[in-house]
Amino acid sequence: MDKAVSCRPMRFAHRGLVQYAPENTIDAFQAAVDHGCEGIELDVRLSKDGVAMVVHDGSMTRMTDGKNTKEISELTAEEICAAEIPYAGHLLPFHPPVPYSEGEGSSRTYTEEEIRYFRETDTRVTHLSTFEQVDSWFAGVSADVVIEVELCAPGTFRAIYPILKRSKNLSRYIVFSGHWEILEEMQEVMRANGVPEGMRTGANFRRLDEKSLAFTKEAGLYEVGLNDKWFTKEDVELLTGMGVKVFSNLGDYPEWWQALQALGVEAFKTNYAEAYTHWLQYGRKDG
Question: Fewer C-beta neighbours within 10 Å, C or N terminus of the chain?
Answer without folding.
Answer: C
